Amino acid sequence: MGSFENNISEGVVTKQDYEILKTRMKGAVANYNDFDDALHLFATKEVRNFNISKLAELRDNNNALVPVLKVEARTNCVKAKIASTDEAQGLEQNLYLARGCNIMLRTNLWLAKGLVNGAMGSDVVPVPTMLSSWTNRHNESLSRIQFPISLSYACSIHKSQGLTLSKAVVHIGEKEFALGLTYVAMSRVTDLL
Questions:
Q1: Strands 39-42, 154-156: parallel, antiparallel or unpaired by DSSP?
Q2: CB-based contacts of 160, cutoff 8 Å, min separation 6
Q3: What values do phi and psi take at 155, rounded to 5?
Q4: Which domain of life is it from (predicted)?
């Protein structure tokens, strides 16, 4: 790891580091369109809105908007229905999908073929539903059945840990609210410089 990466990991940015970072900002990148298919990493909960907006922009070969399918999870009770995706072990209550959309697997399905947790793509392959069962703080048993996938135009920096990306668009925001978040985001990319 070079001094630039070390400085970012330690939260100590020099003037030289800052000058390097400025060359990677949206206005400074000559071919920003090269990043149209890049994963966007957000520090905050902007991920869902970004994914839905990208889904709404999808067009077919005739430049017509692509229909969007809403897949609602099966749950055993209202509390399971309103539980967060994290509480349901990565299973979303409502999935919004369309032909050609980018998705990410949320579990290991077939390691030998690369269908692993975090794998991304838009190819159509059979994905079985998954059951998530958990107990809430009131000791009630909750369950959700859903496809273990999510839209992958964007994801949180936290959930990007473990991913290796050839390119990414990082939305850091005004300030780093968790120590090391910027480093985690930037270290996902194989070649920053």
A1: parallel
A2: 39, 41, 168, 184, 185, 188
A3: -150, 165
A4: Eukaryota
DSSP letter string, the chain: --HHHHHHHHT---HHHHHHHHTTSTTT-TTGGGGTTSEEEESSTTHHHHHHHHHHT-B-TTSPBPP-EEEEPEESSHHHHHS-TTTTTT--SEEEE-TT--EEESS-SBGGGTB-TT-EE--------EEEEEE-TT--EEEEEE-SEEE-SEEETGGGTT--BS-EEEE--SS-SSTTHHHHHHTTBS---
The reported pTM is 0.82
- What's the pLDDT tens digit per position in 78-94? 999 999 999 999 999 99
Task: Give the residues across from 143 on adjacent strands.
Answer: 133
Distance between CA atoms of 166 and 105, rounded to whole angstroms? Answer: 18
Nearest-angstrom CA–CA distance, 166 and 135? 39
Instruction: Give the span between the Cα atoms of 67 and 54, in whole angstroms.
Output: 13
Gap between the Cα atoms of 27 and 45, Å rounded: 24
Residue with tokens 């999510």: 150
Burial environment of residue 19 by CB neighbours within 10 A (0 to 12, 13 to 18, 19 or more): exposed
- pLDDT tens for 157-187 read 888 888 888 888 888 776 666 667 777 888 7
